[in-house]
Automatic annotation (TrEMBL):
Residues in coiled coil: none
NCBIfam families: metW
Xref: InterPro entries: Methionine_synth_MetW, SAM-dependent_MTases_sf
Organism listed in the record: Brooklawnia cerclae
Domain of life: Bacteria
Name of this chain's protein: Methionine biosynthesis protein MetW
Length: 219
């Protein structure tokens, strides 16, 4: 499958139409050039793609399976495909998009390494976000004998969809192994805003991080 199904944009927003964008998604949007073809994996209710289409003249496709999110995305008019991110990305042709985004989903995948490799094939630019298990509050909670819970890791251990937990410094070698170079790392606060201190102490103090990645080498 190519991105032919993603070629239809929404009509221009009317003056009364307001498209809200979550704080962390604003960082995603700032790193996607206007007019890009965007594949949004695990797009949720389509908030990011809706904004990019309406405000940045982008085209694209959302991928989602959760029923409530699918209905919400369709209600926004976002082009949507329901498929399994782990097993069906081979339906997308090589270089069929300019950017692939994956927000708050990497840790919930059985094989994030294989998904990153597939994303690398589909587009030259990849943007992902990941909770930081190395946050100091999480470390203190573990020392007390309990599993951490936070805004970025809100679930009890027995109900979490997250299969993998990683610190930022453990996450970054995965990108290298997948043939992806780090163009930018944006450490975030618990509210999803970029940290005022930037990279200083990020592995200890950032609640999560967004990575802008680009294809490197022949991996």
């Amino acid at each position: 499958m190519t991105n032919d199904t993603a070629g239809t944009t929404l009509p221009p927003a009317g003056p009364a139409r307001s498209v809200h964008l979550r704080e962390d998604l604003r960082v995603f949007a700032r790193n996607i050039p206007g007019g890009s073809r965007v594949l949004d994996l695990g797009c949720g209710d389509g908030e990011l793609l809706d904004w990019l289409i309406r405000r940045r003249s982008c085209t694209g496709t959302g991928v989602e399976r959760e029923p409530g999110a699918v209905i919400a995305a369709i209600g926004r008019g976002v082009p949507l495909i329901e498929l399994d991110i782990e097993h069906e990305l081979d339906l997308f042709a090589d270089d069929s998009y300019d950017a692939v985004v994956l927000s708050r989903t990497l840790q919930a995948l059985l094989r994030p390494d294989l998904v990153l490799s597939a994303m690398r094939r589909i587009a030259p630019r990849i943007i992902v976000s990941m909770p930081n298990f190395g946050l100091w509050r999480h470390r203190l909670t573990l020392l007390s004998g309990h599993m951490p819970r936070s805004r970025d890791l809100p679930f009890s251990w027995y109900a979490t969809p997250n299969l993998h937990h990683s610190t930022l410094i453990d996450l970054e070698p995965l990108f290298d192994a997948a043939g992806l170079g780090i163009v930018k790392r944006v450490p975030l606060t618990a509210s999803g805003r970029p940290r005022a201190l930037g990279q200083v102490g990020a592995n200890l103090l950032a609640s999560s991080a967004i990575y802008v990645l680009e294809r490197v080498g022949d991996a």
